[in-house]
Specification:
The complex is a heterodimer. By secondary structure, chain A is of the alpha+beta class. Chain A is about 30% helix and about 20% strand. In chain A, the strands form five sheets. Chain A has a six-stranded mixed β-sheet with strand order 13-17-12-16-14-15. Chain B is an all-alpha fold. In chain B, α4 packs across α12. Classes of the chains: A alpha+beta, B mainly alpha. At the A-B interface, α1, α6 and α12 of A face α2, α4, α6, α9 and α12 of B.
Chain lengths: ~525, ~300
């Protein structure tokens, strides 16, 4: 009996605790709040340390940089920079800052904030995983690599006065402003960072300059942002509050959405088997996404060191079938690494489409008639989508070359990454999403020095073309050089492109201003709720 | 009694250190590393991060450094949550798991006791058979099956409760029911078998013959002895419930310790994983001690046996 009473007392106590404290850091969202499925849990809210798109989604609303994309991602617009000028060679930029930029504590945002923030990102002690985004700046890579004799003052960035920022680059880079929309390039408040160190991103300490401020943050649960009244354009921001729910399970996200607990979500977090049903809903939204799914080929290993084998494998693929029968979310077959032609500005090259006859004859020439003695391992990480795609590819190759042995190697994500980075694979699945809307955001991963080039393919000609494109001040000439580089790379097939990704998500009809965006960014300052 | 507690504590402390060293070495043996990601880090960035986390040192130096830190109550910085220390993550996750776990345990205790007593007093009645059938169902159906079924019924057929999340009382209902299901069944079974045996014992016959009313015989004399197995079971059960239940927290997207433990394992967050492992093992050992003390208080025979 005593145990029964104790049990009941325990239950009452726990319930009363729940009611009294009422989950202090997770208040119920206001009816005017937008509830967003963020797809993943941010590991940090420090723009200098951000690494994932889950972090980027939130940070672009907390911090404002020099430039930003418009709501649909089609146009780059001035943000804190009122305007900018470049010398004819695009080696030196001067950004003129707005005078009404304010930190949430009332301090003005000045050019000095950018000097401090960019030096901080490039200081090796900060450990910024995306510091490479600033490598175009003179001495940036040397500073970040800890080269002796290079100090923060040597970095090619200078505050000419409070509102003029001069940036010197390593070479002509006319698309430099495009590279500055990412959160790693956004300023942080020096005094706050220095006073609170790692803890400065806690809601009680954070000082930010974007349209929203951080109200609360509980890992694995939610991040709550509220409108920043001291933001320069606060009167044009309609949304009062945004709640990012941080669950990463696609089934949970769909459940929450269907139960009316979510208003919208970021892209790519819907369970694959539900897509055909969801596509019929008016809430379903989809659009182009600057990301490509491909298999990277380890060209240092036989039989894949033979170009004929690589070509045969690519020619035997039915990419159309993978997109329309397996993925079914509007993805398109990829015959290139760059997933877009950038509104026609980029003369994108492409590889040959399906040709089984040619594939078989190439393989026979290489000494594997009908796939005889051909043994391949497809490496991917444990995930139903990756497994389905790998199985489809395995089926297509075995169908085309019946004697070939295509084995699937399914590994847990970290084990897969380990194998990939140790170059211990034949073919490994990859996805590359561009950091900014330019072909170079794709192509630069294939240079000899890129740590993301897992294929072991190194081509001085390709490197030179990429370098020459960077050095070109004429946009058309630059695009033409990039296209030549891509064509040269595709001719050797160190990667086998599979498909171009699309954004896909659900959004309630009363949410306005949450648009398809090729970089999957959703600035909240454009969002209105029309319930 | 104090000597008994001290002796037990003396055994517990080295065990916690053994768990610490074991976990520390095991997580480092696992392939993959905490710094790897879909995008490979440039070598200079990797070097800087390795230095920041002390990964550039030899394993024995890392272990010594870690032991030294833990001795001061500092479980180190998290790799997954770069703006937080492991202590902070545990501080944030523990109240969530504790709330869920204690509530689930309280529900399980009340329902389990009632069910156990009912099925023990009238073993052949239809009600007792029904209760025992439910208990068997509760034990056999894992929470990754019962959880989604409850979501389907209560969130999508009746639209009564949210399918996931945390923050309001309505978020508690489904996970508590899912979590308590298994424990209701265990407690009911333990109480039932204990009670059936005790009610046949000589001292109960003596009490009955003294004219004590049957209700009092059952609740005061019978249950007091019959509940011991349930109390012993409760110690580790509470410890596990309070320190996070991995499956239920995943299903219902609850930001508790169990969730962070899985996140730490998949991300190879060495410090977070080791930190939670140490914390949970210390909690389990402590609860076992509490249970032993409680058993001695409830039943004098235990006191005599353990001396």
């Amino acid at each position: 009996m005593r145990a029964l009473v104790a049990g009941l007392a325990l239950a009452m106590l726990t319930l009363s605790c729940a009611r009294e404290n009422d989950f202090p850091s997770t208040p119920t969202p206001a009816p005017s709040a937008l509830r967003i499925g963020n797809g993943a849990d941010p590991g940090t809210l420090d723009p200098g340390l951000a690494r994932s798109s889950a972090e980027e989604q939130i940070l672009i609303n907390l911090f404002e940089g020099l430039v930003e994309y418009d709501v649909s991602g089609s146009e780059l617009k001035p943000a804190l920079a009122e305007s900018w000028t470049a010398d004819p060679e695009c080696r030196r930029f001067v950004f003129i800052l707005r005078r009404d930029g304010r930190w949430s504590n009332g301090d003005p945002v000045t050019a000095h904030d950018f000097v401090y923030s960019w030096r901080r990102v490039l200081d090796p002690r900060t450990g910024s995983p995306q510091a490479y985004m600033l490598y175009r700046i003179r001495n940036a890579q040397a500073l970040h690599g800890g080269r002796p004799g290079i100090r923060g003052e040597d970095l090619g960035i200078r505050a000419l006065d409070d509102y003029r920022l001069e940036v010197d680059l390593t070479g002509p880079t006319c698309h430099f402003p495009r590279m500055l929309a990412n959160s790693v390039c956004r300023p942080v408040h020096r005094r706050t960072v220095e006073q609170w160190r790692e803890q400065w991103t806690q809601p009680e300490h954070m000082v930010s300059n974007g349209p929203f401020t951080l109200a609360s943050w509980r890992p694995a649960d939610r991040v709550v942002l509220v409108r920043n009244p001291s933001y320069r354009g606060a009167d044009q921001v309609s949304l009062e509050e945004a709640v990012y729910l941080l669950t990463n399970d696609p089934n949970t996200i769909l459940n929450l959405y269907e139960a009316g607990e979510l208003d919208t979500m970021v892209t790519g977090h819907l369970p694959l088997p539900h897509i055909p049903r969801l596509r019929e809903l008016p809430d379903y939204r989809s659009g182009p996404f600057l990301a490509t799914y491909f298999y990277t080929v380890n060209v240092s290993r036989p039989p894949l060191n033979d170009l004929r084998v690589r070509r045969a494998l690519s020619l035997a693929l039915d990419r159309e079938a993978i997109c329309t029968q397996l993925l079914r979310s509007g993805q398109s077959p990829a015959y290139f690494l760059t997933s877009s032609d950038f509104q026609g500005a980029y003369p994108r090259p492409r590889i040959e489409g399906r040709n089984l006859e040619l594939a078989r004859s190439l393989l026979a020439d290489a000494g594997y008639p009908g796939g005889e003695n051909l043994r391949l391992h497809l490496l991917f990480n444990s995930n139903s989508l990756q497994a389905s795609i790998a199985q489809a590819i395995q089926g297509q190759w075995q169908g085309a070359f019946p004697a070939a042995q295509v084995n699937l190697v399914n590994q847990e994500l970290k084990v897969y990454l380990d194998a990939l980075h140790r170059r211990d694979f034949d073919l490994a699945r990859r996805v590359w999403a561009a950091d900014y809307d330019d072909p170079s955001a794709f192509l630069e991963i294939m240079t000899s020095s890129s740590e993301n080039n897992a294929s072991q393919w190194k081509s001085p000609a390709f490197d030179r073309l990429i370098e020459e494109a960077g050095a070109s001040a004429d946009p058309a000439q630059r695009m033409e050089r990039l296209a030549r580089a891509e064509a040269a790379m595709l001719a050797e097939l160190p990667i086998i492109p599979i498909y171009s990704l699309v954004t896909f998500f659900l959004t309630k009809p009363y949410v306005r201003g949450w648009e398809d965006h090729p970089l999957d960014r959703h600035p909240l300052k454009y969002v209105r709720l029309e319930r | 009694m104090i000597g008994f507690i001290l002796r037990r504590l003396a055994v517990t402390a080295p065990l916690v250190v053994a768990v610490l060293v074991g976990t520390f070495l095991l997580v480092r043996l696992a392939p993959g590393d905490p710094l790897s990601g879909e995008r490979n880090l440039p070598p200079e960035i990797r070097r800087a991060l390795e230095q920041y986390y002390g990964l550039d040192q030899s394993l024995d130096r890392q272990l010594l450094h870690y032991l030294n830190r833990v001795a001061r109550g500092d479980l180190g910085p998290s790799y997954r949550y770069r703006d937080r220390t492991v202590n902070q993550v545990i501080r944030e996750g523990l109240p969530v798991s504790a709330q869920l776990g204690l509530l689930a345990y309280a529900v399980a205790l009340v329902l389990g006791l009632l069910a156990g007593v009912m099925s023990a007093t009238r073993p052949s009645s239809l009600r007792a058979k029904l209760i025992l059938s439910f208990a068997t169902l509760g034990i056999s159906v894992p929470s990754f099956v019962s959880g989604p079924i409850l979501i389907l019924i209560f969130s999508f057929v009746f639209y009564l409760l949210p399918p996931a999340g945390w923050g309001e009382w309505r978020h508690l209902v489904l996970p508590v029911v899912t979590l308590s299901g298994v424990y209701v069944a265990y407690i009911a079974k333990l109480v039932k078998s204990g009670l059936s045996e005790v009610m046949q014992a000589d001292f109960i016959r003596t009490v009955r013959s003294a004219g004590v009313p049957e209700n009092r015989v059952l609740w005061k004399f019978g249950l007091r002895s019959a509940i011991l197995p349930a109390v012993t079971f409760s110690g580790p059960a509470i410890a596990f419930l309070v320190t996070g239940t991995v499956v239920v927290e995943q299903i219902f997207a609850i930001p508790g310790l169990g969730h962070f433990f899985v996140e730490a394992a998949t991300n190879r967050d060495y410090t977070l994983l080791t930190g939670i492992a140490i914390f949970v093992s210390a909690a389990v050992m402590l609860m076992n001690l509490v249970v032993d003390v409680a058993a001695a208080v409830i039943d004098p025979r235990v006191r005599i046996r353990t001396g």
